[in-house]
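Example (one chain per record):
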Amino acid sequence: MSSKQDLRDRRRQRLRYQLRQKSHGRPRLSVFRSEQNIYAQVIDDEKGHTLAAASSLDKNLREALKTGANKDAAMAVGKLLAERALAAGVTQVVFDRGSYLYHGRVKALADAAREGGLDF
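Predicted structure:
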């Protein structure tokens, strides 16, 4: 019988395979959420480099946010990530939600990144 972590890993790998098929060379916007914070990176998988990153632990955001574990924090991280990605010259990305459902904080981060100028 598979454990929860095994099932989560299979779901993540299945999603990454689909993203590789559909990405056409675009960078990947990867999201990780913990109970206390949320993190996002724009990754160039061909070179293996992180082009832009943001999290609710960034000094500017930490002072402005009450907590890093709500939708407001996710929206702030999405906007900051979009600014940093545009500064790095990235406009189109592929959204990698990992093993998380596209709901709540993950959806709030994605919507804020779209509003910030990223296309996915």
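Caption: Helices lie at 4-23, 59-64, 71-87, 105-115.
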